[in-house]
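Re: adenosine monophosphate structure - here you go.
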Amino acid sequence: MAKLKKGTRCTVCKSKGEKEKAVVFLPHHRLALCKKHFIQWFEKRVEKTIKEFRMFSKKDRILVAVSGGKDSLALWNALTRLGYEADGFYIDLGIDQYSDDSKKLALEFADRIGRTLHIVSLKEEIAPIPAIDKITDRPACSACGTVKRYYMNRYAKQLGYSIIATGHNLDDEAAVLFGNTLHWNIDYLKRQYPVLWEEGGFIRKVKPLCKITEKESALYAFFNNIEYIEYECPFSEGASSIEYKELLSSLEEKHPGTKLQFYTNFLKKMYPILKEYQERQKDQLKVCKICGEPSFTEICSVCKLKEKVQNISQKH
Ligand code: AMP
Ligand code: FES
Ligand code: ZN
Ligand code: ZN
């Protein structure tokens, strides 16, 4: 976060004739804010994003995918404070200490805000991530992403929610966009939007923090005394998205607003072109022969993975 000059006053307080000192400076918004007005600014920005992309309304039942990290807990907190009907969903990935710690924090937070946290254990559903990592050639994170998306979709439907909200922030989205553009990965680019509408067995997925930076969500969590898991998953080491994030952050430091512009201009200028292309490919979606979930192939990737796990455990 850019340095705050000593003695700077909160922009909002100043406009009201008050003299509260600022504790945060947001250079790309040209705002210096006190704690109270930062929290207000954050929640207003989330609300504005929800409305801009017509993500959901106060009548919808929302399931927040909670990892125990700052973003998803900040999101859950903001949604409930804004008056949305939002429960949590935690997938226990079985990654030793990391999963134990993050589950504990997610449960404590659910208790604090008095909302339900649904928990699914990967060990019971298929196998824990360290075991999946051993039997697949792909990096653990990529198999993990597939499995997470699958169970989020399946359980949200089963539990009667109409929307899944994830804590992806602007840094996540800009880094993924950067990687997908670098490789001209059109199939991923055409799906990179803050709302993916429900279709053919997929439930609606939304990212209400897509215009909030990682630092802003960490500050929001800090100011609200939200305890979150501060270390990364042990499998995330060396992921290219971390390099892209660093690259974009160094650009951001020199030119505040770069990340936001890169991302929002993609949404405004490039996404509509890709969407048209996507419309023409929609009929390729099938239903998995084994589990009945939507899939682009006859048997979905999670069922294939399950078969692999079963075959291996039979051999041992
Ligand atoms: P990540 O892929 O770890 O950057 O996480 C992106 C988003 O996915 C988080 O903000 C959460 O909303 C969701 N998520 C990640 N891990 C889990 C988990 N174990 N259980 C439920 N949701 C998760
Ligand atoms: Fe899935 Fe790290 S959170 S592999
Ligand atoms: Zn103020
Ligand atoms: Zn399947």
